[in-house]
Amino acid sequence: MLFENNSLVLGVTGSIAAYKSALLTRQLIKEGAEVRVVMSKAATHFITPLTLNTLTGKDVYIEMFADDNAGTRHIELGKANGILVAPATANLIARVANGIADDLLSAIILASENGKVAFAPAMNVNMYNNPVTQENIAALKEIGYRFIEPEEGELACGDQGTGRLADLEVIVEEFHRYLHGQNRLACKNVVVTAGPTREFLDQVRFISNRSSGKMGYALANEAAKEGASVTLISGPSNLPAPPGVTKISVQSAREMQSSLMDYAGQTDYLFMAAAVEDITPAKRDQSKIKKTSLENSLAIEVNPDLVKNFRENDSKACIVGFSVEFEEGSDRSIEKMKNKGLDFVAWNNPSQKGAGFESDTNQIVLFENDGSRFEFPKAAKRKIAEQLIKTVVEQND
Ligand code: C5P
Questions:
Q1: Residue 234 belongs to a domain with what CATH number?
Q2: 248 and 392 share a domain?
């Protein structure tokens, strides 16, 4: 159970998503937590205290001074192992960011003994994107509070955009990781490359490959969750940048190389998950080549080896390469690791079911340059990213 012997405060504030706090309460209890619910007055318009009182079997607190024994209630509740505010409104976030403690929940947060407070915001997209809200969020993150980022989609008001309360499962998992996680990459600079590159022949046509970027994006997301400062250098991909990750978009291998080189000498870990195109047209036409001239227009050059060049400029970074090989994969992958100066190479075989390009799952074999071998059986790319980072960091320590 994720929260065995944990006393938690669940703060519920006045967003339409407050109705989801009933299910969230049940999940936290199922995971072993002792949950005490504190609601803002506005939240009581969206869900009744009775519902949450019935689910927890405990008093639900709303008022600062509701009864004779309330004097130090904020101090007592502030001793909880963790405080989760879900949903968190812009108003609550703003008050906490400014040290205002004018209701019970904000006073508990200010009085929190161990400062372990996580917010799962839910609000209209314009309220969320408002620079004032964003500044408040940034200020709280700076202090070490955790934000479980809202999702993009249709909002209750009918608008489209970011502001939907994160999935409850994600909230529970991220809150657990925040309270009990290892923060394996705290203070580390991580660079991840992802996606394909596009090598343009003219303004319309290009050479590329089937990479979707899913593995690289999952790694960037995972590294950020482990506390790293993450830069994601991505070729064309439809995926959104993971929360808290700085994304640099590139097209060609040479553009990717030029962005990557900016980080040589200041990177702790490089995950080179991009499917860098091996070839590029020798010349790029500035318009569209006529069909009649196409036949003889495709002179090819070989692209530089980005990761090899990076290693030549950065002897310290721990570098993990990715090798796509259908057959005799282990020998070839190990050969690449040596040749390119990698510390690790992750071999994927796309001919196996549920592995490789475009798939949501993967299975890999990871080789280390000291001869070690680790197998990660078929799982979601998110899970593979988690296991891979754990192994690489443990081995590299
Ligand atoms: O040689 P191969 O393409 O199989 O090597 C795979 C690894 O090398 C990947 O990590 C890939 O990102 C990287 N690579 C590179 N530059 C290239 C080709 C591949 O950095 N031109």
A1: 3.40.50.10300
A2: yes
Distance CA 37, CA 61 (A): 6
Q: Which of 149, 180, 211 is the last residue of a domain?
A: 180
Minimum CA distance residue for ligand 1 atom 2? 323
CA angle, residues 126, 127, 129, in degrees to nearest 5? 60
Rounded to the nearest angstrom, the distance between the alpha carbon of 254 and the centre of ligand 1 is 13
**At residue 278, what are phi and psi to the nearest 5 degrees?**
-75, -25
CA of 307 to the centre of ligand 1 (A): 7
Question: The tokens of 348 are what?
Answer: 């994927």
Distances (CA, A) of 368 to 160, 220, 257, 321, 384: 45, 21, 24, 10, 16
What the block records as the tokens of 264 is: 């040589």
Ligand 1 and 325: CB distance under 6 A: no
Q: What is the pTM of this model?
A: 0.72
pLDDT in tens, 65-116: 877 666 788 999 999 999 999 999 999 999 999 999 999 999 999 999 999 9
| Alpha carbon nearest to ligand 1 atom 13, residue | 307
Which residues are CB-neighbours of 192 under 8 A, at least 6 positions away?
A: 216, 219, 220, 223, 230, 231, 232, 233, 270, 271, 273
